[in-house]
Amino acid sequence: MQRFLPLKANIAQMYAKNLSLALLHLVFNNPATLSVHQGDSGTTPRILQLCLFLEQHWDKVSIFEDLRPYVEELSFHETKHLLHQLFPKIIGAVS
After folding, report:
1. Cβ of 9: how many Cβ atoms within 10 Å?
2. How much is the average pLDDT of 64-93?
3. Among 1, 5, 30, 66, fewest CB within 10 Å belongs to which?
4. pLDDT, average across residues 50-64
């Protein structure tokens, strides 16, 4: 999948979002990432992929509906770390 990501710049925005959603789906449904324990930072591959998706598509209103099923699957600790990752970026964007 990673070898197709550099092609993302050359494709229509709609397809770029769909490709990102497919990658998010793979990360959330891959048994290898489900068994990954949180490191010192508490960040899991699922959190990293969610943050990457948000950074790439933050300007689209539809992302909230797209992300809802994935955010609902997060554990309490993953949700906490997701918020810790996002708050500084949100504060920086508002200031």
Report:
1. 7
2. 86
3. 1
4. 88
In the chain, the amino acid numbered 28 is: F
Contact predicate 28/70, CB 8 Å: yes
Integer CA distances (angstroms), 52 to 45, 49, 55, 84, in order: 10, 5, 5, 14
Give 3-state DSSP helix, strand, coil % of the chain, rounded to 5.
Answer: 75, 0, 25
Amino acid at 27: V
**CA triplet 63, 67, 56: central angle to 5 degrees?**
50
Q: Give dist(CA 41, CA 90) in Å, integer.
A: 19
Confidence of residue 16 (pLDDT cuts 50, 70, 90): confident
